[in-house]
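Key result, reporting period 2: structure in, sequence out.
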């Protein structure tokens, strides 16, 4: 019996799904980060090897029993990245029988079987799309510090900037500042400037502040609402640009827009995004919004099944 392995390699967590050649009897294994830009090549190899070996051990099989791998890895942003990641895969025993892509592609196909766009806002953000002709477009997701607009990290960083400016007398107090003070167990908000500047930058910790901003936006806090509105604007601009570049045909064909990631799982954020995106593209009759329910790694199994089908057709 042959097997398929899909890997969703994120900047925080990596998910692996292994199935039979019909996509059934699925097993799941997890490990930490596999973004080589965050943890280096050596640690990325170790984590990928660990998660794959765990899956093989569960099934009592060897890597030779895997007919196809789909490797959706964060940090796969350029031709240079492809070269680096190809070398990593070769070193851990994966040769030839694989498809390497950015992890956002897995999220798209986890949500839909048709051409469309995925908008991801979690710790980071990215927009990825595919049209009927197979053309692929990627917008954003280039770097936490310089890009990833509208992401959890961006929202958290905006909140931090406003806290520091409040401490320096730029802004009056806000309910959001009180929430942040409690979140970091500070006696007074003025201590935050010393705390944050002395701490080692932790992208995940900063991104976790986004949930406080979302909650306070729901409560009507003016500052929180303005940060969320700006985040939504950036995400909608990226999605609109992907939509424009993909040149989807006019007519009755439904275009799927998959919403993924913790930030977009919030009703207040997702509804604001939908409204802003529709305003920007100027139509809504053919837009079908999908809130991603499946794990993104499930999209890797779908991709693998399609690739195997093409291979069989070519052989026959």
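The corresponding designed sequence is given below.
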């Amino acid at each position: 019996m042959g097997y398929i392995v899909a890997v969703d390699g994120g900047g925080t967590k990596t998910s692996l799904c292994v199935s039979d050649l019909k996509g059934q009897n699925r097993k799941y294994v997890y490990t930490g980060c596999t973004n080589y830009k965050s943890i280096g090549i050596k640690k990325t190899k170790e984590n990928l090897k660990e998660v794959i070996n765990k899956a093989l051990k569960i099934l009592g099989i060897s890597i030779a029993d895997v007919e196809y791998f789909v490797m959706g890895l964060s940090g796969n942003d350029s031709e240079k990245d492809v070269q680096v990641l190809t070398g990593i895969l070769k070193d851990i025993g994966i040769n030839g029988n694989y498809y390497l892509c950015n992890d956002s592609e897995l999220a798209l196909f986890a949500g839909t079987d048709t051409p469309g766009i995925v908008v991801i806002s979690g710790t980071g953000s990215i927009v990825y799309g595919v049209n009927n002709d197979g053309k692929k477009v990627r917008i954003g997701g280039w770097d936490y510090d310089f890009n990833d607009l509208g992401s959890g990290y961006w929202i958290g960083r905006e909140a931090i900037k406003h806290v520091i400016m409040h401490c320096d007398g730029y802004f009056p107090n806000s309910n959001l500042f009180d929430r942040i003070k409690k979140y970091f167990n500070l006696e007074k908000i003025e201590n935050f400037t010393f705390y944050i500047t002395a701490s080692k930058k932790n992208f995940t910790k900063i991104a976790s502040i986004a949930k406080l901003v979302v909650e306070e936006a729901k409560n009507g806090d003016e500052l929180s609402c303005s940060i969320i509105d700006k985040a939504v604007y950036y995400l909608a601009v990226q999605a609109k640009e992907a939509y424009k570049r993909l040149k989807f045909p006019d007519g009755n064909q439904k275009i799927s827009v998959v919403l993924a990631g913790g930030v977009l799982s919030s009703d207040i954020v997702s509804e604001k995004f939908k409204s802003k995106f529709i305003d920007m593209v100027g139509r809504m009759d053919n837009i079908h919004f999908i809130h991603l329910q499946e794990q993104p790694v499930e999209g890797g199994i779908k991709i693998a099944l399609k690739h195997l089908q093409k291979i069989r057709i070519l052989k026959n």
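The beta strands are 3-9, 14-20, 27-31, 66-73, 98-101, 116-121, 125-130, 136-139, 255-260, 287-291. Residues 217 and 225 are 5 Å apart (CA to CA). This case is discussed further under Risks and Mitigation.
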